[in-house]
Amino acid sequence: MRNNYRYSRYNRNVRIRRKRILILTIIIVALGGLATSIIDDKFFSKDKNVQALASNEAVVSKQDDGANKTKEDDTNAEVQSDSNVDDVASVEKFLTQQAKGQKIEDTDGKKVVYLSFDDGPSETNTPSILKTLKDENVKATFFVLGKAIDQSEANKNLLKQEVEEGHAIGNHSYSHNYKYLYPNGSVNTNNFMSEINKTNESLKKVLGEDFSTRAIRFPGGHMSWKNTGEVDKIMKEKDYHYVDWNALSKDAEGPHKNADQLTEEVKKTVGNKTKVVLLMHDTYGKEETAKALPGVIDYLKSQGYEFRTFK
């Protein structure tokens, strides 16, 4: 009897252990399945997020490319639609080649002059310069200062008049302050670009949000300053092009000159060049420049030059 009791008890314990093992196995399997599901969901969700991010980046990149392409197409269309307008990139290129003594590419042999006026607009000289240009049926490029635009309503109206009469507009910084823009003779990239941006804002406030210009003229000329590499890179990314000059009236150099003397300086510096970017000024105190302009235009016409602008 005692042996039978022990045997029965033993069997019962075995059955209990088996049930426990079975239950434990079921629990382990269930937990394993749940863990696998969680891991799969986590990684699948991560994959979906990565795919979505990649898709969004592709869309943004495509939109940026499209915007840049649209801007480029608009510029090309504007240049092509006006026979008196050249691409500012080509003007920058030929000036750079000429400054380096290289052969100028893409020249058709025509004599071309680009009249340019810096530091305006001004109420004293810009109106008479605009009148002369209109009377002579000649277009020019005005490199304007943001502070001059913001100075008065009259100057804002002169800026509008320049555009309405078919002249081109370039950005000449906001303040024209050499110490701020070029400390120790070197370009301060942050200061320079902040002034370009500030003048762009002034231009848009007057001419509308859609207005933009790719033409930049460094106060004092790009040629005059050190350490231009960083700012050149930024300008290239933004499709800006700097335009110096290869002839000038010297109305901002040396002693004061009268109209006849300014005209003679133009003749000397133009020389026998085929392509000319002529520097003059329409700011305050440049009354003799305004007086000299009719004679300058007459001389250039007599030498067979075609008057053009750039954008």
UniProtKB/TrEMBL annotation:
One of its GO terms (biological process) is carbohydrate metabolic process. It comes from Clostridium beijerinckii. This is Polysaccharide deacetylase. Residues 111-308 form the NodB homology domain. GO terms for molecular function: hydrolase activity, acting on carbon-nitrogen (but not peptide) bonds. Residues 61-82 are annotated as: Disordered. It comes from the Bacteria. The chain crosses the membrane at residues 21-39. PROSITE patterns: NODB. Keywords: Membrane, Transmembrane, Transmembrane helix.
